[in-house]
Amino acid sequence: MNRTIFIIRVFFFSVCILGSWLITLTSNDYDVGKVLFFGACLGGLVILVDIYLKGFSLRGLSAITFGLGIGALIAWIVSVSPLFTPLKSDPALAQNHQLVQMILFVVLMYLGSVIALRGKDEFNLVIPYIKFVPHDVQTPLVLVDTSALIDGRIVGLCRSGFFGHAVVIPKFVIGELQNIADSNDVQRKAKGRKGIEILNELRENPDIDLRVESSEVDSEDKVDSKLIFLARSLKAKLLTTDFNLARLAQFEGVTWLNLNELADALNPEIHIGLSVSLELMKPGKDTGQAVGYLRDGSMVVVNDGKRFIGEVVQAEVISIVPTSGGKMIFAEIH
């Protein structure tokens, strides 16, 4: 990209020199040296302006254009208002009327462009540039971060049908996943690849309302700050397993959906007489016993279950013994 821009700049500068020389051929009155110098200065000045505006994006240009238009509209409304009727009716003040109009247009267009440029992030969310994507404003939105994608439980949550939200994934989150997947660290690379696989699963499921948000915020901000800003701007909830990000979101007034709390809430309350399904993993301490584990990690000792080790059995809870490490659950096979 940089090499292409350099070639374009050299071509433009050459065109300025060539154009200046062609102008001198139209008349003998032109000083060739001065005209060529003027053409070189003009080309160099334009290139310097281009270099100075290196960080100026299409989003900034669209915001300034919008601000200039709004400023010009307000200036025109004020200038044709009855406030300026005395200036219009008096011929001696007609020149002052034109001067006041010019000042109004310059001042209000300047203020409009500056205000629009300062709020270019909000402007971009209201009026997207590049392409317009229709969104159903009645659908609640949930913004998904990198940690939730790597966690993977969002796929099952969406497939269950209990999750009545449209899933919004910003492009900078996808970029962060790609950076993690390209890491030299083996564990980080595995996490990044898992997150990309989860993203593809969400995209391939036609029953999931998946939206990729192309609106970008200030590139200098950290990903956490971008997520919170975007969630607040879209009035979306934030789905994450990053506790620090969740606490920051709560401080900023953004609703946080906690997957761990949801998993705990879905775990059945263990009581005597409850029938549980579990896989028996190993023998217990006493004769004939076998040990299995519930989804929340609770250990269940099944009497007379040794012969079923390696199989999934249905057992009924007969007693619960509190211990320092939690609770010990005893059960019998149906």
Please supply descriptive tags for the structure shown above.
13 helices, 5-stranded mixed barrel, alpha/beta, 10 strands, Rossmann fold, 334 residues
Poorly predicted ranges: 125-137
Query: How large, in whole angstroms, is the Cα Rg?
Result: 34 Å
| Average pLDDT score | 79
Number of domains: 4
The share of residues in extended strands comes to 15-25%
Arrangement of strands in the largest sheet: 3-2-1-4-5
User: Which shape, going by the Cα principal axes?
Assistant: elongated
User: How many β-strand runs?
Assistant: 10
Helices, by number, come to: 13
Compute the separation of the termini in Å.
70 Å
CATH topology category name of the largest domain:
Rossmann fold
Structural class: alpha/beta
> Main sheet, how many strands, which sense, barrel?
5 strands, parallel
CATH architecture of the largest domain: 3-Layer(aba) Sandwich
**Helix and strand pattern:** HHHHHHEHHEHHEHEHEHEEEEE
Write a brief caption for the model.
The protein is α/β, with parallel strands linked by helices. The chain has helices at 2-25, 32-52, 58-79, 85-89, 94-118, 120-126, 146-151, 153-159, 171-181, 186-204, 223-234, 243-251, 259-266, and strands at 141-144, 166-170, 210-213, 237-240, 256-258, 275-283, 290-293, 299-303, 312-323, 326-333.
Polypeptide structure, described:
With 334 residues, the protein is α/β, with parallel strands linked by helices. The chain has 4 domains: 50 residues; 78 residues, no CATH class; 124 residues, 5'-nuclease (Rossmann fold); 59 residues, OB fold (Dihydrolipoamide Acetyltransferase, E2P) (Beta Barrel). Helices cover 53% and strands 17% of the residues. It has 13 helices and 10 strands. It has a 5-stranded parallel beta sheet. Strands 6-7-8-10-9 form a 5-stranded mixed barrel. Helix 3 runs antiparallel to helix 5, helix 3 crosses helix 6 and helix 9 packs across helix 10.
